[in-house]
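Chain A, query sequence.
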Amino acid sequence: MTRNTRNTQNAPDATSPGILVVGGTGKTGRRVAERLTDRGLPVRIGSRAAARPFVWEDPTTWNGALEGVGSVYLTYYPDLGFPGAAEAVGAFSAYAVARGADRVVLLSGRGEEGARAAEDRMKESGARWTVLRASWFHQNFSESFFLDPVLAGELALPTGDAVEPFVDADDIADVAVAALTGPGHTGRTYELTGPRALGFGEVAAELSRVTGREIHYRPVPPDDYRAGLREQGLPVEFADLFGLILDGRNALPAHGVREVLGREPRDFAAYAREAAATGVWNGAVASAGT
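Chain A, predicted structure.
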């Protein structure tokens, strides 16, 4: 008999507290929800388009999203370091604990001082918390804001010669599921990275190799990048996130993936090969992006 995953995702059963995945259609949330569902666990997707909508800016939606829920995988869009994020995360976490969802696994940003404020507000809620501080995702190049530049053949970014130990979203999801379902993770903070640091020139070379076409990296001044964001109607605060890698604070790989899962994280080269095989980088881009 085939399990009805649609019903499983939207209606926790009567015997087990549900797990709310806030941002359940995003890069990590989608993967977390899939893994939990595959285990037969009751999952609710927290998003604007869900059967029970979840909207950060509308606290009246929180009650319905939390009904029957005992644990939460918590992500915040666009970023925990943005203005208002700490207050929203703190208010929601306190509300969730009051409603009986006292286990919270928060996706945070590695080296982000603004994100630390959101972590602290979440901890003040009284939740049984776990914090996942992640590096930038591999999947930013295939599912997010670096996709259009890759398709256009040029990564024009304000990153200079800085390096980043990019982490795979699948590794983050595996760690999140372990923290949501297993013992020993309460009160722990894990730093999640890939096995090695790469400069954006090295990223461009790897993407060129797997796609069979030239993809270049061009450093640009931060002000030019901000202007490009404004032209696209995107938050200029995204430009500030690049400062997190320019000063080298995140350059060294960490060992959180191995600590939790007992294996090494996936390397960027393996991700790039698998992503290229899907054809995601075969198309043309309508607008080159920033």
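The longest helix spans residues 85-98. Residues 81 and 115 are 5 Å apart (CA to CA).
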